[in-house]
């Protein structure tokens, strides 16, 4: 692994990831297989071990699975949605991120199903994306009181250009009282205001 990206633990878990991760939504939508291979190999060469994908990213998971043959142990795969590990050519997911809460399913039922997958060795750790502050607190309380696996990360929208959470996220997301680290993802970043006098 390269030296330009150091590893850090995600919260108090044993999951060690690079400070910078590689989002791969373009692998299945804009880049062909060889372009995807070049990007992924460059990331690995620079010490990036966190690979973020989802089954909604077109061919992304299949391409990652093909490119990583023989290098699976070098990466941490984070994915979302209804993932089929066969697309990734792996036996396990390092970080499964629940993409959004399901209002029709109690959080205890969701966490119980995910807890089973962790204990079966199919998933190492759990995370969530697009939860509100109260949903994060509810999931944490439920996991603790029912002795279920807890979320170790939250992937929330963040606008790098303005260095602040996207406004709609700001209204619903609060700093985590549970110590759950936040993993920002690429939102449509609002345009900066026009210069004064323009």
Care to give the gist of this entry?
This protein is of the alpha/beta class. 29% of the residues lie in helices and 18% in strands. The chain has a six-stranded parallel β-sheet with strand order 3-4-5-6-7-8, covered by helices on one side. Strands 1-2 form a two-stranded antiparallel sheet.
Distance between the termini: 48 Å
Radius of gyration, CA atoms, in whole angstroms? 17 Å
Helix fraction, binned, reads 25-40%
Mean pLDDT: 81
Given as residue ranges, the uncertain stretches (5+ residues, pLDDT < 50) are 166-177
Helix-strand topology string: EEEHEHEHEHEHEH
- Percentage beta strand: 15-25%
Across the major sheet, the strand order is 3-4-5-6-7-8
Strand elements, count: 8
List the total number of helices. 6
| Largest sheet properties | 6 strands, parallel
Supply the helix-strand structural class. alpha/beta
Oligomeric grouping of the chains:
single chain
Shape: globular
């Amino acid at each position: 692994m390269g030296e330009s990206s150091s590893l850090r633990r995600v919260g108090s878990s044993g999951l060690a990831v690079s400070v910078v991760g590689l989002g791969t939504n373009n692998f299945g939508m804009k880049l062909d297989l060889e372009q995807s291979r070049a990007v992924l190999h460059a990331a690995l060469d620079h010490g990036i071990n966190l690979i973020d994908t989802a089954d909604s990213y077109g061919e992304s998971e299949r391409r990652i699975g093909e490119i990583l043959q023989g290098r699976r142990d070098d990466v941490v795969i984070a994915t979302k949605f209804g993932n089929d590990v066969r697309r990734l050519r792996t036996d396990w997911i390092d970080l499964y991120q629940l993409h959004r809460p399901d209002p029709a399913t109690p959080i205890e039922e969701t966490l119980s199903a995910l807890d089973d997958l962790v204990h079966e060795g199919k998933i190492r750790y759990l995370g969530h994306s697009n939860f509100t502050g109260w949903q994060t607190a509810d999931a944490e309380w439920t996991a603790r009181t029912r002795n279920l696996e807890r979320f170790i990360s939250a992937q929330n929208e963040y606008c790098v250009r303005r260095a602040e959470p996207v406004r709609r996220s700001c209204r619903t997301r609060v700093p985590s009282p549970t110590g759950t680290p936040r993993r920002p993802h690429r939102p449509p970043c609002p345009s900066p205001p026009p210069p004064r006098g323009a």
